[in-house]
Backbone:
């Protein structure tokens, strides 16, 4: 390998893409440390304590001057912010500048959940997100991050893209942040440099085509498809635009850009139409390497209207009908629009009635989580869940107890510490007014209900 520790074939490829002068700048940039950035959860009230500056294409994203120990910051465990690459936050600019209609969205390759939390925030109460991850342990991490974000508008599924075939023409927006050869991660991840080869690029490109051959069909007429990678080469980027437009009927979409952002637009000509992609180079943009494109499905494409089914595929999942759902919302002090389901006696709430869509999805996919699990009811008392604590839903009938930072870390470690003058029963534990979880004061002792598997071990 040459001095710069880059594979020779990769150097040849980048020289072609950038020219000699820019390639020198690129090589310097990828040997500099990367910048840490976070995106705030606008549904939770919180302001950053660390020195920071705004990310130009994101209203909620900030570069941090230094990288703090996130694990020891209780606010991250409360879902107040998410650590995310600045380039990835460009999706926020796409959603806002095109005013993409809200509805049923799919994030097909979603773990650990950076784009899903962003999409969930954009949808708020006006849409529902299916956040899917094929690899089971990663789907678990995705579920945790969705629970921490707390908006109650997402379903987490653990499926192969092939399982989505019955959902053709079903989604208003499909996002695929595809597994790729990771050239944009060379700065952060030295292993990505070592694993890079021309053969691997070809394997990645073939895998992406298999995924997109499914994903491209799931978008309904007039809906949108966003495809992204963290790699620079044309096989995994421009060639995919060509593939998608040849396989399916998609129209071009162009994103407004500020020249100061230095994001490079690329154009692909197919059948007399110009399609657009956007490349983020680390020597031009403060962020890791990234590529993104957005396409609009043509008006002639198929729309699948969901129909009522008799039962959910899951034998223990039951619908709570509308009248009882409204009564539950009133009893719990929520906004009145929630739709409830029960699973093994526990109540789950979705932020709005998307019942037909939910039924259809649950018929075909392996559901890991949905909405907000509220808890079980014993006579007129609720046994609340951790998921409810972390959600943005009110917890009006429960007293709360605010912890200092040191105490909050002890709580998250599940260690015992003194909490004088607590009321008896369930108490919501908060840090900077952000709910962190529950304790139950039994009078003679206090039980910490922070989930064992989420406990911090530092
Ligand atoms: C770039 S990562 C997604 C990052 C995520 N969108 C985020 O913003 O946090 C790509 C994901 O695709 C998943 N994946 C790997 N092989 C896949 C396949 N054949 N089909 C679908 N997804 C796959 C990986 O497990 C990984 O979670």
Residues:
């Amino acid at each position: 390998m040459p001095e710069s520790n880059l594979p020779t074939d990769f150097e040849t490829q980048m020289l072609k893409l950038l020219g000699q002068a820019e390639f020198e700048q690129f090589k310097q940039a990828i040997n500099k440390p990367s910048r840490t950035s976070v995106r705030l959860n606008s549904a939770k009230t919180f302001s950053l304590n660390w020195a920071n500056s705004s990310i130009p294409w994101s209203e909620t994203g900030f570069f941090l001057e230094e990288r703090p120990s996130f694990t020891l910051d209780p606010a991250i465990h409360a879902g107040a912010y998410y650590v995310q690459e600045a380039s990835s936050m460009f999706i926020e600019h796409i959603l806002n500048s095109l005013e993409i209609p809200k509805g049923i969205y799919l994030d097909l390759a979603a773990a650990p959940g950076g784009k899903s939390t962003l999409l969930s925030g954009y949808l708020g109460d006006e849409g529902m997100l299916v956040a899917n991850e094929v690899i089971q342990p990663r789907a678990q991490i995705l579920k945790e991050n969705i629970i921490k974000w707390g908006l109650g508008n997402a379903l987490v599924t653990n499926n192969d893209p092939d399982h989505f075939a019955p959902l053709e023409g079903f989604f208003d927006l499909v996002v695929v942040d595809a597994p790729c050869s990771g050239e944009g991660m060379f700065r952060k991840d030295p292993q990505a440099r070592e694993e890079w080869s021309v053969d691997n690029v070809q394997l990645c490109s073939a895998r992406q085509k298999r995924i997109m051959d499914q994903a491209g069909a799931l978008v309904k007429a007039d809906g949108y498809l966003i495809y992204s990678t963290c790699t620079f080469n044309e096989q995994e980027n421009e060639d995919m635009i060509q593939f998608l437009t040849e396989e399916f009927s998609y129209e071009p979409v162009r994103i407004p850009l500020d020249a100061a952002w230095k994001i490079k637009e690329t154009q692909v000509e197919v059948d007399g139409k110009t399609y657009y992609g956007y490349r983020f180079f680390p020597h031009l943009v403060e962020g890791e390497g990234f590529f993104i494109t957005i396409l609009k499905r043509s008006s002639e494409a198929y729309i699948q209207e969901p129909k009522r089914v008799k039962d959910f595929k899951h034998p223990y999942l039951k619908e709570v009908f509308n009248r009882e759902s409204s009564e539950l919302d009133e009893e719990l002090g929520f906004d009145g629009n929630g739709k409830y389901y029960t699973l093994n006696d526990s109540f789950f709430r979705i932020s709005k009635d998307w019942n037909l869509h939910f039924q259809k999805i649950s018929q075909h996919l392996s559901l890991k989580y949905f909405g907000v699990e509220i808890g079980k009811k014993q006579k007129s008392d609720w046994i609340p869940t951790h998921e409810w604590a972390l959600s943005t839903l009110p917890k009006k009938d429960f007293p709360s107890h605010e912890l200092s930072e040191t105490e909050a870390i002890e709580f998250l470690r599940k260690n015992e510490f003194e909490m004088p003058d607590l009321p008896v029963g369930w108490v919501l534990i908060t840090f900077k007014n952000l709910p962190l979880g529950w304790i139950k004061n039994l009078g003679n002792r206090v039980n910490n209900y922070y989930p064992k598997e989420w406990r911090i071990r530092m």
Notes: The chain has a mean pLDDT of 95. The radius of gyration is 23 Å. The pocket of S-adenosylmethionine is lined by residues 88, 109-115, 133-135, 138, 161, 177, 179, 207, 211 (CB under 6 Å).
